[in-house]
């Protein structure tokens, strides 16, 4: 892995590392949304949504189209975001795992290292 690649990946992960930005990304997976539409759906102000969209845009995850006075956003890398959510859906919190599941994962990890 090259330094530039690791920096790009870190920027993407950092952009998604906020609950509101995850909600925005999940909403945009459903299709293009204007900021006013997201304001009706998300529990934050329009200004806050715009700030989070700017972070996602800077990371190259979203872009927008101007529709008169409205800015309507869409995912510029929908496969990446969908894959990220698919990966997260597979993760289970260690609190919800049984002792047997944890032990089995440790055994599998040890087998891979050998």
Automatic annotation (TrEMBL):
HTH arsR-type domain mapped to chain residues: 1-95
Is-annotated flag, keyword Nucleotidyltransferase?
Answer: no
Keyword terms, alphabetized: DNA-binding, Transcription, Transcription regulation
Which terms does the record give in the GO molecular function aspect? Answer: DNA binding; DNA-binding transcription factor activity
Q: Which InterPro entries match?
A: ArsR-like_HTH, HTH_ArsR_DNA-bd_dom, HTH_MetalResp_TranReg, WH-like_DNA-bd_sf, WH_DNA-bd_sf
Q: Does the keyword Zinc apply?
A: no
Span of the signal peptide: none
Query: Origin, by domain of life?
Result: Bacteria
By its UniProt entry, which Pfam families does this protein fall under?
HTH_5
Record NCBIfam families: HTH_metalloreg (NF033788)
Q: What is this protein called?
A: Regulatory protein ArsR
């Amino acid at each position: 892995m090259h330094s530039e690649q690791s920096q790009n990946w870190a920027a993407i992960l950092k952009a998604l590392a906020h609950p509101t930005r995850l909600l925005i990304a999940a909403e945009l997976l459903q299709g293009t949304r204007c900021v006013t539409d997201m304001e009706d759906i998300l529990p934050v102000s329009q200004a806050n949504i715009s700030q989070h969209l700017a972070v996602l845009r800077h990371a190259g995850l979203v872009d927008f189209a101007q529709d008169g006075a409205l800015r309507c956003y869409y995912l510029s890398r929908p496969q990446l975001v969908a894959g990220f959510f698919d990966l997260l859906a597979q993760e289970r919190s260690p609190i919800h795992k049984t002792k047997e599941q944890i032990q089995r994962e440790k055994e599998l990890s040890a087998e891979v290292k050998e």
